[in-house]
Amino acid sequence: MMKKYFIICIFLLSAMSANAQREGTWWHFGYNVGFDFTEVFNGNATYPKAICNAPLRQGEGVFSISDKNGNWLMSSDGKYVYTPGSIKGATFPLPTNSADGDFSINKNNILFGNSSATQSGIMCPVPGEPSLYYIFTIDDKQSNPRKGINYSIIDLAANNGIGELVTGKINKSVTYGYQKNSLTERYTAANVMENITLTPSSDGNYWLVSIFGSHFHAWKVTKDGVSDTPVLSLSSYEFASTTSSNSYRGGLGHIRISADGTRIAYAIDQASNTTPVGVFGTAFFNNSTGEVTSSKHATKNIAAYGVEFSPSNEWLYLTNMGSAGFIKFSDLANGSMNNYRNMITTGEFNAVMGPKGIMYMIVRGSSTLYTIDDPNNPDTAVPANTYKAHPNFFACGGASVYPFNGLPNFMPSFFLVKALTGPTELCTGAEGEFIFEAEQGTSGYGAEYIEWDMGDNTKYYTGDHPLADPSTKPWPTDNLHKIKHTYTSSGIKTIRTNPYSSNGLMPDKEVTLNITVKDCVTYIYINPHLRAKIIQ
Hints:
InterPro entries: Quino_amine_DH_bsu (IPR011044), WD40/YVTN_repeat-like_dom_sf (IPR015943). Residues 1-20 form the signal peptide. Helix content is 2%, strand content 36%. By secondary structure, the protein is mainly β. The protein has two domains: 26-397, Methylamine Dehydrogenase, Chain H (7 Propeller); 416-518, Sandwich (Immunoglobulin-like). Strands 30, 32, 33, 35, 36 and 37 form a six-stranded mixed beta sheet that branches. A hairpin with an 8-residue loop joins strand 18 (263-269) and strand 19. It is globular, with a radius of gyration of 27 Å.
C-alpha cells in the first residue's frame, strides 16, 4: 500500500510598526510664511506650495513637525506652541493689536526659548509614547537672565486634541558637564550659544547635541528623560562666553548632524560689533556613544550663520550675513577655507535640505525663493549656476508677509532597515508575499526606491521607480514594501533587497532572506476498503 503524505507550507509574516516619514511636510517660518510639501511627497510636484497664513511671526529660530502621513501637528518659535486645534478661528497674520501668544496652547506658560535665537528649539517624539513629544529650547545669548537649554513635554491628545504641556515637565534644564580641565566648575546657561540639534541614536533613542565653550555636548534622550551626564568631546576651537556686552552677534549660528548620523558641521559667528569672525568646523559623530572626534575648524572674515549638508555629505553649504556659498566637507575637515566658493552675495541667507534632494534658501525680507536642485553637484566653475531663483514665490500674502532669517530646525533621519519577512518555505507554483519594512529617511537624504532580486533572475521595484507598481509610489506611507512572487523551480532561493537613493545604490544596506522552494506532491487518501482501484 502506498504511503500518504501532505506537505503543508505555513507562512508566518511578522508585523512591525512603522515610524513617521513625512514629518517635514509643513514648514512655518518668518512672518507668517511657510511651505506645504504635500504634493511633492505625493509625486505630483517638484517644489512646495507657498503658505502665507502660517501662525508664526518671528525673525529667526523656528521648528515644526508633522505626523507620518504629513498632517501638521505643531509649530513653535521657542516660546509659544501652535497646533491645529489652538488656531481654529484665527486668521493670520493677526491684527497688530494682538497679544503675544494669542492662539497658542501656552500663552500663559511661556517656554524658555527665544525667536531671536538662531536655532531656538527642536522637537522629537517621546519613544514609545504616540501622543507625547519633547520640545527642546535654547534662548538668545542676550537674554537676561540666561535660560540656556531646557526641555518640555507636550501631550497632543490632551485638552480634546488641542494639546497641552505636561505638568511637571515644563522648562526643565539640562544638566551641564564640567568645563575644560576642571572637576568642580560646570558649564552654566551663560556659556550656551544659540545652536542645538537632534539625531537618532543607534538604539532607537536620540542624541541632543550643542557646541559651546571648549566642548561638543551630547545628551542621551529616552522615554525616561534626558541624561544627567552629557558626553563631552573637545572642540578644536574654544568659543568665548556669549555674555560679552560688546558683541551682538558673537555666539549665533547653526550646528548640523548629517542624515546618517556620522558627521557634524557648524557655522558660528564670533564677531564683535564691527569685525566679522566666522568659525566653520567639522567633526565625526558616534551615534552609539555620543562621542565627537576629529574636530577641525577654519575661520574667515565673514559673518557666519548657517550650514547644511548635501545629501551625499560631500558638500557643505554655508550661509552668511550677506552671502552664501559651498565647500567640500573634506576641505573644511582639513582646516581650510581656501576652496570655499561664493555663489550669491546679496542678502542674508539661510538654507535647509528639503524632500527629494532639493535644498531651499530664503533671503531676509525677500519674496524670492532660491533652490539648489542638485546640491550634490555644485558648479565650481560658475558658482552662481548652482542655485535657481523663483521670484515672487512668497507674494501671496502681501507686503507684511515674508521670510526673515530663520528656517525650521528639523531632526534629520536616515534610511533605516526594519525587517525583511516572508515564508521560509514555499511550494513551486504557489504564490508567496514578501514584506520589506524600512524608513525612507527625511529631508531628501534617504532612499528613493527598493530593488528586489528574487534569486531566480526575477527583479521587482517598489518606491519611486518607473517599473514600480503604482501603489508603492513614491514611497509606501506605512513603510511596508510588499511584493508577491511565484517560483517555478525548487531549491534554496536568496531574496535580496537593495535601496537606491538619488546618488545610486546605497552601500552596505543590502538585506537578504533565504527561502526553501519545494516541489510539493499532494496525494489523495483513498479508503483501502473501496473495491474500485482508482490509483494503480
